[in-house]
Write a structure and sequence with these properties.
It is a single chain. The chain is mainly alpha-helical. The protein is built from 11 helices and 2 strands, in the order αααααββαααααα. It has a two-stranded antiparallel ribbon with strand order 1-2. The protein starts with a helix and ends with a helix. The structure holds iron/sulfur cluster (SF4) (2 copies).
């Protein structure tokens, strides 16, 4: 198994194992904490569906040559895994684990199944990616649509850009405080993201006890 697959599978298993054993009030706190992000993702998915389905079908899916879903081409954040485990039934996570374990190689992303991406909520990097062709076809001469897309990009930053306390950083902190670690915790390991946090005076994420104040 590749290092990439190994890291992904271990992270999924660790997150699932920990969430299954959490007291219900902490689990509920986490679910409430991701609510607005899940709503944001529904808004992006609707936008993508309405404005890019035809373009992507014509350019890539008909010829099965999508430039979006190449092997190990995307960064999966730890929070992508946590959010998916929180909102998925076990039967929706099992196919991801099976794909990682039974992977036989090839040029496509390990998560690309026969009917598309296997994630219930695909990684944020995938959701927000538009190739130059797609951007040019849909957005170049449509100012209102471009402005809608930029609005969604701004909303994305509220969850993923650590110039302030953001959800993706916080979810890593929650697991770190429980003594759990993963190579996908980029908000605590990536030199680039750590520099952004340091520049804005943000140190290690502290979430201990937050659920006690909010339950
Ligand atoms: S975003 Fe671009 S590369 Fe990706 S599926 Fe659409 S047209 Fe193809
Ligand atoms: S995770 Fe899903 S959307 Fe992202 S590259 Fe893989 S198959 Fe494509």
């Amino acid at each position: 198994m590749s290092v990439y697959n190994q890291q992904q599978i271990e992270t999924f298993r660790m997150v699932r194992h920990h969430l299954e054993r959490l007291p219900i009030f902490q689990l509920n706190w986490l679910k409430r904490r991701i609510e607005s992000y899940v709503q944001f993702r529904a808004d992006v998915a609707r936008f993508q569906r309405e404005h890019f389905t035809d373009i992507c079908s014509r350019k890539c899916f008909a010829s099965q040559s999508s430039a979006c879903c190449g092997r190990e081409g995307i960064m999966t954040f730890f929070a992508d895994v946590v959010v998916n485990v929180l909102i998925s039934a076990p039967r929706e996570i099992d196919p991801l684990l099976a794909a990682l374990a039974l992977d036989t190689g090839g040029f496509n992303c390990v998560y690309l199944g026969n009917t598309g991406c296997l994630w219930l909520l695909k990684p944020i990097v995938c959701e927000m990616f538009l190739c130059e062709h797609a951007k040019k076809s849909a957005l170049e001469e449509d100012e209102p649509l471009l402005s809608q897309w930029e609005g969604l990009r701004l909303r994305e930053r509220q969850y993923t850009w650590p110039s302030q306390r953001v959800l993706f950083d916080e979810l890593e902190g929650f697991f770190l405080e429980a003594g759990l670690d993963s190579p996908l915790m980029y908000f605590h390991q990536s030199p680039g993201l750590l520099r952004v946090k340091a520049k804005h005076g943000l140190g290690p994420q502290k979430v201990a006890g937050v659920w006690n104040q909010t339950r």
